[in-house]
Amino acid sequence: MASPSITLADAAKLVSGDLYVGDESKSITGVQTLEKAQSFQASFLSNLKYKHALDITKAGLVLLSPEVEVPEHAGFAVIRLKNPYMGFALLQRYFSPQPISNAIVHATAAIDETAQIAPDVQIDAHVCIGAKVVVGKGSIIGAGTVLAEGSRIGDDCLLHPRVVIEHGVCLGNRVIVQAGAVIGSDGFGFAWTGSEYLKIPQVGAVVIGDDVEIGANTCIDRGAIEDTIIRRGAKMDNLVQIGHNVVVGELTVMAGQTGISGSTTIGRGCQFGGQSGAAGHLNIADGVVVSAKAGVIGDVKIPGMVSGFPAVPHRHWLRSAGLFDRLPEIWNKIKHLGE
Q: How far apart are CA 254 and CA 30, in angstroms?
């Protein structure tokens, strides 16, 4: 299949920018970094750390913000726009769109007769679909995926290979689940009898809102009684762990190896850095940013960044971190006070 192309004029319209330098009829066929781009490709500068690459790039088009100067002898076209990174995202989506269902059901797929599958769903090899499952129109179910009894998949979802959707789990529309993710496994619920841990049946489900993306090998546990809920537009990286009865707010993002303990409620538009975590039964306000490796052990009631363990306001943590390097010096001074 031929690679898509786009003229500079149409590229400017796509990214809502202005063609500052260049022939509007010239076409580009992809996006690449400044260092590796060729004359038929576009690139972008969103981090001034890489500004030096403008002097050496062979790109045919570069997306630049208005304040960045174009090198005097630049050989590339320029589209000016406020947010070059957003422009990159739009071009990348143009050149590499999401796959579209081919409506083919592979011969090796095992589908229960009571399942309701829209006629245009793509079902790849060795998929297993249980009783009373519902799959909406245009969805793609990757090879080796399991949809357990009573689960529901919305319209235009993309489930990559080896995903497990446990019984009763509900996915909204346009949900993307990367390979190996497990949604609806038992929550970590046990009662100590005095001599052993007694398993508590986990009878809630997991409800995933529209436009959520779940990373590879991420696990989202089903609720103990009520449902675990991931709201609209949330994005999770690979290897994220969500405990039972957690509620993740709209448009919240979590980087790899984030862990959220059971029954914690996270607000709208929060950001969790890699290997950060939150203890159970907490409330985290809208707009909270949790730095990488930070551990939240108490409620966070106001928006802002928290860092460290236990997590504290970021500026407080910076002051404490600055003092840490000086502790030997400070201790020596304290010891000499009594001399």
A: 29
- What are 53's two structure tokens? 């690459």
* pTM of the predicted model as reported, rounded to 2 decimal places: 0.92
CATH for 162: 2.160.10.10
**In b/e form, how buried is each residue of 31-49, taking b as 16+ CB within 10 angstroms?**
bbebeebeebbbbbbbeee
> Which tokens hold the place of 130?
């249980």
The CA distance from 288 to 134, in Å, is 36
Q: Any idea which residues carry the catalytic annotation?
A: 244
Say yes or no: 213 and 120 in one domain.
yes
CA trace torsion 316, 317, 318, 319 (10° rounding):
50
pLDDT digits (tens, 9 = 90+) for 91-136: 999 999 999 999 999 999 999 999 999 999 999 999 999 999 999 9
**Residue 244, Cβ neighbours under 10 Å: how many?**
26
Taking the C-alpha atoms of residue 245 and residue 264, their distance in angstroms, rounded to an integer, is: 7
**Pair 55, 197 in one domain:** no
CA-to-CA distance for 17 and 280, rounded, in angstroms?
Answer: 46
Residues 146 and 90 in one domain: no
- Nearest residue to 105 via CA among 123, 125, 128: 123
